[in-house]
Write a structure and sequence with these properties.
mainly alpha, 4 helices, rod-shaped, 118 residues
Length: 118
Amino acid sequence: MSEDSSPVVVVRETRKRWTAEQKLSIIRLTYLDGNTMSSVARQYGISPVMLFAWRSKAKKGLLTSGHSAGEKTVPASQYAQALDKIQRLQKLLGRAVSDNELLKEAVEMMSGEKFNTR
């Protein structure tokens, strides 16, 4: 019995994410003469079942990029910064409203009869 002394490296396998444009490009290859679903799937390292599902969705018009044509997209970091800024502004607005209420009460008290000495 010989023991292998080389270290074992465990790597977390990540899932490949394909954009709608990439999926449509791969699907187009399946329609070319000489290509089969299996050969195209093998070429891109995806399951033939997945490729069939993409093709089925594309035929139904369900394979889209996930957002409408006129919508703008922003990076997640920019979105998080915007949410932080909104939260800070909401706190400031809350303080301003509170200060405004205090000032209204002070004006009412000062204009009341107990402060009129004339």
